[in-house]
Task: structure prediction
Amino acid sequence: MKLIDPFNRIHDYVRISLIDKCNLNCIYCNPVNSNKHFYRNNELLTDDEIIRLINILVRNLGVKKIRFTGGEPLIRKDILHILRNISELKKDFPLSLGITTNGTELEKNLHSLYDCGIDYLNISLDTLQPQRFIAITGKSLFEQTLQSIYLAEKMNFKKVKVNAVIINKINDDELIEFVEYFKNLDVELRFIEFMPFGSNEWQKDGFVSAEEMKNKIQTAFKLVKLEDDNRIADNYAVAGYKCKVGFISSISNHFCDSCNRLRITATGKIKLCLFSSEERTSLKYYLANSNISDEEIAERISQSLQFKQEKHPELEELLKLDNNNMLSIGG
Ligand code: SAM
Result:
């Protein structure tokens, strides 16, 4: 069985949030003064439930790519145990594994992640200025994050991406510096539009469109369009440089028509869209119950996909939603 929604989009990519908590307090994602609800540990999917879920997704539903996210996935203590268990699947199925992390806990885990079959690493870094890093994240962990990018790039991961959310008057003045800084590294810099979520105090004047980011970068560098199969980023080589750049225009030019992804929250709820406020079926009960077959769970996942909308709501609607925060959904 394949996961196909009512608009004939095949969903073969699933993002799983391993934990709803994070060790950083990024102003656009997990601001300190927000009144977010965190789940108790026993409400989260257990490692066995996650391993069962991934087996069902891959064996029964044809999922080809899994990305682990959070919260911060590397603060989940049993993450390597989960990965070791599922990496076996790669022998029999065309499965690739990725992780999105803030990099602060990455250095000590890099080799284990590689050994467990992680192919793609996305590391978030919004600034190259240590003081600004503290202002954005609330923590003095700039060096750790940067170091993890250097080390990861030297290893044999299929791709290392650096994610930067660009916000007007916060870090938009660093776009050119980012490209210059990473020019000798084989990394893909991904500049992401600032998205509104419940309690992240999104303001229109903080928004910088992907087009504006690209124009700014083009004042200093020659960008050469890459025709790759990436459906969500507009990707470019930078003439004469090793790094590449990509722009993610989730707000100004959404890419819903080619959406192939499903999200599972840390508590096991299916999120059909990053921006949908309602969380459909909760899988925790089913995954915990050995009397319920894998086939039945696969059927439930497939059925819930039938409620997927054609595209995410427009900006005005997104601003009214207050129960979708990035932290519990995972980016
Ligand atoms: N803790 C991990 C990290 O920092 O990468 C994974 C979770 S984080 C929610 C995943 C991605 O979402 C990060 O790259 C982060 O920058 C991005 N993100 C969070 N809030 C965002 C927002 N309001 N707009 C755009 N991107 C956002």
Q: What stands out?
A: The radius of gyration is 19 Å. Residues 22, 28-29, 69-70, 72, 100-102, 124, 163, 165, 192, 194-195, 197, 200, 326-327, 330-331 surround S-adenosylmethionine (CB under 6 Å). The chain has a mean pLDDT of 92.
